[in-house]
Write a structure and sequence with these properties.
Elements (H helix, E strand, L loop, with lengths): L1 H15 L6 H23 L13 E3 L3 E3 L1 H18 L9 H12 L9
Antiparallel strand pairs: 1-2
Helix pairs in contact: 1-2, 2-3
Length: about 120
């Protein structure tokens, strides 16, 4: 199941790359892509077999868990994507609040029609 999820993430990130206009989103998606590809390669080529391979974890985080560099990249990407989303930055680099303000201004006629 995790192999399929990693493969889907890779496809979605690669397809999203065409719409990128933000350097921060490019970094976040690059980290996500690198982490997903790192774990996917382990799952494809390591024992016990194709698609069922074990991911090599070698970094101990105290007594919490053990992970690898790909896991670190995925967590940093998730945090950066959450921050960008909270700030309203879209994949194209535009901020959501400016888009909403621009569309509201465009909807109101310039002559002030409708004002009493």
């Amino acid at each position: 199941m995790l192999t399929v999820v990693a493969a889907v993430i890779v496809v979605v990130v690669v397809r999203s790359a065409r719409r990128l206009g933000s350097r921060a989103w490019a970094v976040a998606l690059g980290l996500l892509l690198g982490g997903a590809l790192g774990n996917l390669v382990d799952r494809l080529v390591r024992t016990p077999g194709l698609g069922r391979g074990h991911v090599v974890d070698f970094i101990a985080y105290g007594h919490l868990f053990i992970g690898n560099v790909a896991d670190v990249a995925i967590v940093v990407a998730a945090a950066l994507m959450a921050l960008l989303s909270l700030r309203g930055v879209g994949l194209d680099g535009r901020r959501g609040d400016r888009q909403a303000a621009g569309s509201a201004d465009a909807a109101e006629p310039e002559g002030g029609a409708g004002r009493g």
